[in-house]
TrEMBL record:
Residue ranges, compositional bias (Polar residues): 116-129, 525-534, 595-635
Residue spans of biased composition, Basic and acidic residues class: 653-663
Signal peptide: 1-23
Name under which the protein is recorded: JmjC domain-containing protein
Domain of life: Eukaryota
Annotated region (Disordered), positions in chain: 82-132, 525-549, 574-699
InterPro entries cross-referenced by the UniProt entry: JmjC_dom (IPR003347), Znf_C5HC2 (IPR004198)
UniProt domain JmjC: residue ranges: 203-371
PROSITE patterns membership: JMJC
Organism listed in the record: Cyclotella cryptica
Keywords noted in UniProt: Iron, Metal-binding, Signal
């Protein structure tokens, strides 16, 4: 995979083309019957522009969340689309708002037009991405309705499991046999096993397109991080429902991210290129619209709770792209690029970070920004740079060596300058008298991370990797060399300097990197040495855009859950069992059209939607107990019927058609058990000619 531009839309298209190749069909490894629950966030969609924090939503199992999300999408479709009359000229599904926020001249696709195709599309009763996009921004900007949804974001894959299978070769942190240097498997004789054949079960376990593995790929600098960090080198799962939103943000430490859509309804993405001018433009919009809020919460942008319309960004001169992500598609975001979006229905995605060597200049910017806001970094920037420098054999081009060498010289220059100033001011150098544990430079493991946590600067939260200032008044407080004067009010002579890395060690490290640069020489490389080389030409529509625009206005968004909501083996129902519906659900409905004015459609009070079901024990043919979601109550003794199972007539007897369906289901249970437990889609014929070497994330 070649990274040729910091215009992230280009990479969207490249990955989209790869995944449309025949044969790509990874198994969905998530255990959808897992009884563990995950916590959600309660998002007030109509208040996303206010920058308010999200409260906790309900806790769900995978099936419970899918049931809730499916019911919510169906209810929206029924009220907003199915109820619309074909001859209506002003139904909720077809009416365009007069709100200036939806003026087509101000919308953006690339630098010119992001949503003109959706806002100017002809009236339709079909719930298309274009129609839902119009509904969404009417809620966010026009506050036409008060909508709250539960969003299952940042779900821990170490607890619930990943949607991708786990490597047998130790290529991911969560693998039971995680290797000190993952990437290869040996054949027992010192040689390496060949890469698995494309499309095989082993391939999906070991490929670096598996999000568990990509942080440890051969050219990702995160492979030196041997401790699992959720969301960084350990993927997070995301369970979305209609209008659940991931707000404007860029990644921790300005890293790359890769997001895979496992199953379900599409996601609408918006993205801003990672150039300094565009990133500064996004921050300028935050300051202009939320100046009062930012005074109270200076690091509001890092909270990921605010979502402005692309129209507003475009008015500020910020380039904006948009893309619809479907099942089986990856999206990659580049360093510092802002992105956000929302789901169009029930879905499940997964995301993780990775970093190439061209990320280093962006990492410097991120590190400085974190120190400004006193925000702890997920790992030590200085440690990672020095760890990279101690693996010179992995620095494959002179451009990469130059980037590493430049950062090493910057770090050394600041360290030596501040050390000299502090010693002259009266701070004592006790490095010769104190035996400090040396910095480990071969990898960043859990022990190293724990030690780094103990030497955070009290002022800026920077990890003091090379040296730190301490004072006799405290046994735990330390400061970086920049902020020692903020540490305490003691006289300077009580402070002392702790040094882990000497001047000579720094110089030797730089020499090794520069020697490596001479060895590799100049090579043809697509790796950028920094953001200064990012092209400044206006963004242009990618190939196939017109086709995607048409798809955006005609494709009917599915409302189906990502998995079957029925238990693996349905309970057999006797024809003489009389059941009646409880008639109540936890999900509040939109107000009745017949009883309320048209403009009140969709008004709710409280969290919307919420848990749908209760729990009941059922027994499969082997006699083991299983948990099932049910929405019916039983008036007489016997087994409660499953939701969606054949219903009874008014007198309590099963209808003939229902009885026939029940008998057919019973036969399927006995003779076709595999059909009832299948969780994946039909495997297409593999395409062995597809270049599996794309696993190598080479620059």
């Amino acid at each position: 995979m070649i990274f040729v531009s910091h215009h992230w839309l280009i990479l969207f298209i490249m990955l989209h083309m790869f995944l449309k190749s025949p044969g790509w069909n990874p198994p969905f490894a998530l255990n959808i019957n897992c009884p563990k629950r995950f916590q959600t966030k309660d998002q007030s969609i109509h208040r996303l522009q206010e920058g308010i924090s999200f409260g906790d939503g309900k806790a769900y199992t995978v099936k419970e969340y899918q049931e809730m999300a499916t019911e919510w999408s169906k209810d929206w479709r029924r009220r907003r689309y199915d109820a619309a009359k074909p001859d209506s000229q002003s139904s909720p599904a077809t009416t365009t708002t007069s709100n200036p926020s939806h003026d087509s001249s101000a919308s953006t696709r690339t630098s010119s037009d992001v949503s003109n195709d959706t806002l100017q599309s002809p009236p339709t009763r079909t719930m298309t991405p274009s129609a839902l996009e119009r509904d969404y921004w009417e809620i966010v900007e026009g506050q036409s309705q008060e909508i709250d949804v539960d969003y299952g974001n940042d779900v821990d894959t170490t607890e619930l499991g990943s949607g991708f299978p786990i490597s047998d070769w130790g290529r991911c942190v969560n693998s039971p046999n995680f290797l000190s240097t993952p990437n290869t498997a040996t054949n027992g004789e010192g040689g390496e096993e060949p890469e698995p054949k494309f499309g095989t079960e082993q391939y999906y376990k070991e490929t670096y397109w598996n999000l568990n593995n990509i942080p440890n790929s051969k050219n990702s600098v995160l492979r030196h991080v041997k401790v699992g960090i959720n969301g960084i080198n350990v993927p997070w799962l995301y369970f979305g429902c209609l209008f659940s939103t991931f707000c404007w943000h860029n990644e921790d430490n300005y890293m790359y991210s890769i997001n895979y859509h496992h199953r379900g309804a599409p996601k609408q993405w918006y993205g801003v290129p990672g150039t300094k001018s565009d990133a500064d433009g996004v921050e300028r919009v935050f300051k202009n619209y939320l100046s009062v809020k930012l005074r109270d919460v200076p690091d509001l942008m890092h909270h990921i709770t605010t979502f402005f319309s692309p129209r507003i960004l475009y008015q500020e001169g910020v380039k904006v792209c948009k893309l619809l992500q479907n099942e089986g598609e990856f999206i990659v975001t580049f360093p510092r690029s802002f992105h956000g979006g929302y789901s169009l229905g029930p879905n499940c995605g997964e995301a993780v970070n990775f970093a190439l060597h061209d990320w280093i200049p962006h990492a410097v910017d991120a590190n400085e920004r974190y120190r400004t806001f006193a925000r702890p970094s997920v790992f030590s920037h200085d440690r990672l740079i020095y760890t990279i420098a101690h693996h010179t054999n992995e620095l494959r081009t002179k451009e990469i060596c130059d980037a590493v060498s430049m950062e090493l010289r910057r770090l050394m220059g600041e360290e030596l300058l501040l050390r000299t100033k502090l010693i002259r001011s009266g701070v004592r150098d006790v490095s010769q008298d104190v035996d400090l544990p040396p910095n480990r430079l071969d990898q960043l493991d859990e022990e190293s991370a724990d030690y780094d946590d103990k030497r955070l600067c009290h002022s800026c939260k920077h990890i003091c990797f090379f040296s730190a200032v301490a004072c006799e008044c405290s046994e735990s407080k330390v400061s970086c060399l920049r902020h020692s004067h903020y540490m305490c009010r003691c006289v300077v002579k009580r402070r002392y300097l702790l040094i882990w890395t000497t001047e000579q060690e720094m110089k030797d490290t730089i020499s090794r990197v520069e020697k490596r640069a001479e060895e590799v020489g100049y090579a043809n490389s697509a790796v950028s040495a920094g953001s200064s080389q990012v092209p400044k030409a206006p963004l242009e529509d990618a190939p196939g855009t017109e086709k995607d625009r048409a798809h955006h206005c005609t494709y009917e968004v599915p409302v189906d859950p990502i998995c079957s909501l029925e238990p693996e083996v349905p309970t057999l129902i006797s024809s003489d069992v009389s059941c009646s519906s409880s008639g109540s659900k936890d999900v509040p409905s939109l107000k009745d059209e017949s009883a309320q004015p048209q403009q009140d459609l969709g008004k709710t009070s409280g969290t919307y939607p919420s848990t749908l079901s209760t729990k009941q024990d059922t027994t499969d043919v082997s006699g083991s107990n299983k948990s099932a979601n049910v929405n019916n109550s039983c008036d007489s003794e016997g087994v409660e019927p499953l939701e969606g199972y054949p219903s009874t007539s008014d007198d309590g007897e099963l209808t003939k058609d229902a009885n026939r369906e029940m008998q057919k289901a019973q036969i399927d249970v006995i003779f076709k058990p595999s059909d009832m437990t299948s969780t994946g889609v039909k495997q297409e014929d593999g395409n062995d000619s597809l270049d599996a070497s794309s696993d190598d994330f080479s620059a």
